[in-house]
Amino acid sequence: MSEYHNPVLLDESVSALIQNPSGIYIDATFGGGGHTAEILSRLSESGKVIAFDRDMDAIGNRLDDDRLVLVHNNFRFVQNYVLYEAHKNGGPELADGILADLGVSSHQFDTAERGFSFRFDAPLDMRMNIEGGMTAADLVNTMEKEDLERIFRIYGEVDNARKIAQLIVTARTEKAIATTGDLDKAIAPALPKFAEHKYLAKVYQALRIEVNQEMRSLEKFLEGASAALKPGGRLVVITYHSLEDRMVKNFIRSGNIAGEEHKDIYGRTEAPLKAVNRKPILPSETEIAGNTRARSAKLRIAEKV
Length: 305
Hints:
The chain has helices spanning 10-17, 34-41, 56-59, 78-88, 106-110, 136-142, 145-155, 161-174, 180-187, 196-211, 214-228, 242-254, 285-290, and strands at 24-27, 48-53, 68-72, 95-101, 229-239, 273-275, 298-304. The protein starts with 9 loop residues before the first helix and ends with a strand. By secondary structure, the protein is α/β, with parallel strands linked by helices. Strands 3-2-1-4-5-7-6 form a seven-stranded mixed sheet, with helices on both faces. α1 (10-17) packs across α2, α7 (145-155) packs across α8 (161-174) and α7 packs across α10 (196-211).
């Protein structure tokens, strides 16, 4: 599992998640199975884990444990699955805890043909689920300049987003942008000297988020997860960039990703969750030294009211 993905904040997240060793837990982002394996190791024989992943490569990491149910689907459908299982079993079977690690797995970054990284010249794909949907190449070759600019500005917080969009539109009139190398070459004039990699990382992040509809999926997941939890059950989320962390923080505080607070007649904020930790938990220096991809991680914990 460690070769596929080194799980971040493993002990901190699982310790916060499990309060009942005989309970039902959901790992919404199975990936390499690291978090799932740790959850299972702390459960009794009557405990259960339901794990989700839309990437077939991740599904191939299935663990041999009768207490695990592995679902090949987007985590945005977590509530649908829980309600279906409850109906099938003739009664409510809500979760004791739900964990989501929102990071792209090391395997996805390191597999050249997936097109997630500018480190390789490979097809510009970036789909989490390679069985369907638009690729990043489809996106950069067909979207209007204004839409490209919006994606880079909002999802990547890219400086000169308008220039990047214009360079892409100009380049694709001469030749379709099919590979990561084509994209890098197209936007090369806009890359700042001595900070090319950091800038490219933002561009690729923006495209990946759009291709996989990550922000919309996260919103639906948060809504579904809060409904799928038992009272007192915990939601544990690990984020990696400011956009998703802000969404999680807002949802915990107000019950919606915009952070708009709605109060009852007594002036109390109406929200399905309450924060367990006021400030996010960060990886230790030791963990970051051993896994540099952990450096931007933030862990937030909430409890169902």
